[in-house]
């Protein structure tokens, strides 16, 4: 029974997704993998047409968008291999053991099964990689869950065109009817999220909207998991020796990271803690001339929001511009920005914390000048709850871990690891590698669930739940738990008799 009456179009989508769920969950992994690869191939075949639409709707460059199509296809193929490998199923088998240490042990076998229909709310700033066929959608489909995508209002035509590519490819690959749907409108997305037939939600966007949706998911009569990737300022720490060794290189990398895609990336370095009186601000100012081309922001709403944040930051006491930058609006209301980099002393940063600490979604970053002897590890809990990334730039000698400040650096790395999902060394946080070990998540407010990731093969586990089978006849076991292991998936087996030796090695 649904929680509220849906419009006819939404009812058709949700009912079709619910009806398709058992059949889709039962598809052979290799068949589902072939379907996902077919979607990836179709997406790349349509790249030229789709990129043209995306350029018009988002203002992002052809090179950026073309690369994003490739990334999206790669992550689809990655999940195809992941679901056939089967490691994500975490299959565990405890055979019956009459001599178990706690009495007779039954045969217990545990694996994971798909949750059911999932709604994915698309992002604005990645019209391919975090949109209709992005990483969340890829992991949802790979998990065997019917997918309902709420299109982002910033690229509706692209969403429709991409959805058509997906539908045709999935149908041609023989997937059940109803495994993929696209809907438009915030109210429609909320209505579907509230529907009892929908079993999970995924979102990439602002903290405010993400919190609203997470609260809706949690307040349902039967709460459901909700995975939001929200806001992040991605602090960077640069040592004195690193600046002395390669100030110009760091300045170039920093400006590239801040200005790329007009700073509209959740992994943009928003704050950089630099030694007071170091050469880095001057190196940034000297290199800035190569990064002053205007870039259109995604839409007028984002542009106005960026202008407000930029003005608030520039107007805070103690803040002074290193690279002034700017933003102008054209006759259509679109905002065109150039990078802004400001500096502020640590004490002034502390005093103006409320005005400075929040994310500025656009090409702006703040250098925080820290006096010699500052306890950098203590700055993380002082200023930040949680972030997607934290970065540390070291000198070649410091990277050996044998310098006089090694203990302080280890303490900083430990502090970062407690408050971010990915710790980087001598690099920049923009450009998230699509690879099995990637972690794209972090403590609130970076994400709504700090144990999950939206990039990397672990993302598939968000849309599964564990089930144990006790004394089940072989004919009724999931294939992943059968003794003959027809899927060839990894199985963790606890042999009978081993319980009497548990812990002996530690005596």
From TrEMBL:
InterPro entries: Ald_DH/histidinol_DH, Ald_DH_N, Aldehyde_DH_dom, Aldehyde_DH_Superfamily, ALDH_KGSADH
Domain called Aldehyde dehydrogenase: residue spans: 8-369
Lineage: superkingdom: Bacteria
Assigned keywords, A-Z: Oxidoreductase
Keyword Oxidoreductase annotated: yes
PANTHER family hit by this protein: ALDEHYDE DEHYDROGENASE-RELATED, SUCCINATE-SEMIALDEHYDE DEHYDROGENASE, MITOCHONDRIAL
Name the UniProt record assigns to this protein: Aldehyde dehydrogenase (NADP(+))
């Amino acid at each position: 029974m649904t929680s509220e009456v849906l419009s006819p179009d939404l009812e058709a989508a949700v009912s079709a997704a619910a009806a398709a769920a058992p059949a889709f969950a039962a598809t052979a992994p290799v068949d589902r993998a072939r379907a996902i690869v077919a979607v990836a191939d179709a997406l790349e075949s349509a790249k030229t047409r789709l990129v043209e639409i995306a350029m018009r709707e988002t203002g992002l460059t052809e090179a950026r968008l073309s690369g994003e199509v490739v990334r999206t296809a790669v992550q689809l193929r990655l999940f195809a291999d992941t679901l056939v490998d089967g490691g994500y199923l975490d299959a565990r088998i405890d055979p019956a053991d009459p001599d178990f240490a706690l009495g007779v042990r039954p045969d217990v076998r545990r694996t994971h099964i798909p949750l059911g229909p999932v709604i994915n709310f698309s992002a604005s700033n990645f019209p391919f990689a975090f949109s209709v066929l992005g990483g969340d959608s890829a992991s949802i489909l790979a998990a065997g869950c019917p997918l309902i995508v709420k299109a982002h209002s910033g690229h509706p035509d692209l969403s429709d065109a991409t959805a058509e590519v997906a539908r045709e490819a999935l149908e041609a690959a023989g997937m059940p009817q109803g495994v993929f749907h696209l809907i438009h409108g915030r109210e429609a997305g909320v209505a579907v999220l509230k529907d009892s037939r929908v079993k999970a939600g995924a979102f990439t966007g602002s903290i405010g909207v993400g919190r609203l949706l997470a609260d809706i998911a949690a307040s349902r009569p039967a709460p459901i998991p909700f995975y939001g990737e929200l806001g992040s300022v991605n602090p960077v720490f640069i040592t004195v020796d690193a600046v002395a060794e390669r100030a110009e290189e760091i300045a170039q990398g920093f400006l590239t990271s801040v200005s790329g895609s007009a700073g509209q990336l959740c992994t943009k370095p928003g704050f950089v803690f630099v030694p007071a009186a170091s050469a880095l601000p001057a190196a940034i100012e000297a290199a800035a001339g190569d990064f002053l081309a205007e870039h259109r922001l995604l839409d007028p709403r984002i542009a106005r929001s960026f202008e407000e944040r930029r003005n608030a930051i520039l107007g805070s006491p103690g803040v002074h511009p290193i690279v002034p930058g700017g933003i102008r609006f054209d006759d259509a209301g679109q905002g065109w920005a150039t990078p802004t980099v400001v500096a502020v002393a640590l004490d002034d940063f502390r005093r103006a914390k409320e005005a400075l600490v929040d994310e500025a979604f656009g090409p702006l970053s703040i250098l925080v000048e820290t006096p010699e002897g500052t306890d950098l590890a203590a700055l993380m809990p002082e200023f930040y709850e949680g972030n997607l990334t934290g970065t540390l730039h070291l000198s070649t000698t410091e990277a050996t871990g044998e310098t006089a400040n090694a203990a302080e650096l280890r303490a900083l790395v430990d502090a970062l690891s407690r408050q971010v999902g990915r710790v980087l060394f001598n690099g920049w946080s923009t450009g998230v590698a699509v690879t099995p070990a990637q972690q794209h998540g972090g403590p609130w407010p970076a994400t709504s669930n700090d144990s999950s990731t939206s990039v990397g093969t672990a993302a598939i586990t968000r849309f599964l739940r564990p089930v144990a089978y006790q004394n089940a006849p072989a004919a009724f076991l999931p294939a992943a738990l059968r003794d003959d292991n027809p899927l060839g998936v990894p199985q963790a087996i606890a042999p009978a008799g081993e319980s009497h030796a548990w812990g002996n090695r530690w005596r």
